[in-house]
Amino acid sequence: MHHFHYIKNELFCEEVPVATIAQELGTPLYLYSHATLKQHFKVFDGAFSGMKHLTCFSMKSNSNMAILRLFAMLGGGVDIVSGGELYRALKAGVEPTRIVYSGVGKEVAALEYALKTGILMFNVESAQEILKLNEVAERIGKKARLAIRVNPDVDPKTHPYISTGLKENKFGIDINDALEQYSVAASLNGLDVVGVSCHIGSQLTEVGPFVDALRKLKKLIEDLRDIGIRIDYLNLGGGLGITYEMEAPPDPEEYARAIQTELGASDLTLIFEPGRVIVGNAGILITKVLYTKPTKEKMFFVVDAAMNDLMRPSLYNSYHGIQPVKNRGREKVKADIVGPICESGDFLAKGRDMEMLEPDDLVAVMSAGAYGFSMSSTYNSRPKICEVMVKGDRYFTIRDRENFEDLIRGESIPDFLMEDQNKVQEG
Ligand code: LLP
């Protein structure tokens, strides 16, 4: 469900024609629907209303402050993976007691920052990190609440780059070593063991792997309680998939029912870290056709957005729907939608049956709200594009388009190179 729809062959976001925004702000741009964001958060969070829980939006999927602020206002927390994400979340007004921190490579400075902030808990991912967290906590006189992120060795049946809960992945502590590591953590003065956590992968389209992981975690929690380690929180991570093309993932209610059935009556507080399922279909990328280029092989539509703006197609060969902002009823062609970057891997879509486009036509790249802007870069010295939120009949720029000065901010040329340049000029 989302609020991007056609009225008389013209694409609208809520009540605003997409073409009006593009005309006003230029292209490319990311466009989010406030109503969709809000609804997706509420549907996910509401699905667990019968259970003690906390929804910690996984902000790596979209870290714009306006979006974080919206979820914070709806009672959400966030899942962070870096000091930078913590900074953003706090600036957006997220309650520290609703922040959980995962990641295999947490730096000392970031651990210290999060400890001083008083976040809810750290999801610790290695034996060394347990010791490091304890050391930092003792040094600054704090207690670090922690969960161990366990790797339950469950196949999430998703793209290998985004599967995380298999033995061969770098994430978490092997569930078979967890008891031992929990005992170590429980014996350390700087630590307060409060939870068990896992995240098995992203874009899952079945509930089975989640249930398999939960079954293993339940057993672990029983074993921990048997040795006197009290567990209050169970974090099941994120990973629920969305429809990009033909996928039919379980909806949040179905996912919640499966979790509740497997968990049974429980005094645990559940934590979820959804990202994609909340923002994925709440955002689109608007781009303009620069050139159309028929070759003997196929038709190319060269657009002004590129792999630096949306890298998912290049990186994972992932599918995003391509829709003209105005349906004009032209003849159908098979086309590749490509960007201006100097790489053959720079494409947004391949071999699409769609209506013929002309230069200056606008195109919407669908389902781009998750891992779109947040993974963008300035490759080929292309300034980062703007982000816009629509609410009803109004729209708001929530991130300015960057300019050329932004591109070189922080760079400097050492004196010796300047001298050389003088010499060149003198010579
Ligand atoms: N929790 C942890 C610890 C994670 O590592 C992730 C995602 C999530 C939660 C949120 O997962 P989600 O609900 O969004 O599936 N760039 C890739 C996705 C990478 C996912 C990384 N971890 C993509 O564009 O598909």
UniProtKB/TrEMBL annotation:
PANTHER family: DIAMINOPIMELATE DECARBOXYLASE, GROUP IV DECARBOXYLASE. This is Diaminopimelate decarboxylase. GO terms for molecular function: diaminopimelate decarboxylase activity; pyridoxal phosphate binding. Homodimer. It comes from Candidatus Desulfacyla euxinica. It comes from the Bacteria. Pathway: Amino-acid biosynthesis; L-lysine biosynthesis via DAP pathway; L-lysine from DL-2,6-diaminopimelate: step 1/1. HAMAP family: LysA (MF_02120). CDD domains: PLPDE_III_DapDC. Keywords: Amino-acid biosynthesis, Decarboxylase, Lyase, Lysine biosynthesis, Pyridoxal phosphate. It holds the Pfam family Orn_Arg_deC_N. GO terms for biological process: lysine biosynthetic process via diaminopimelate.
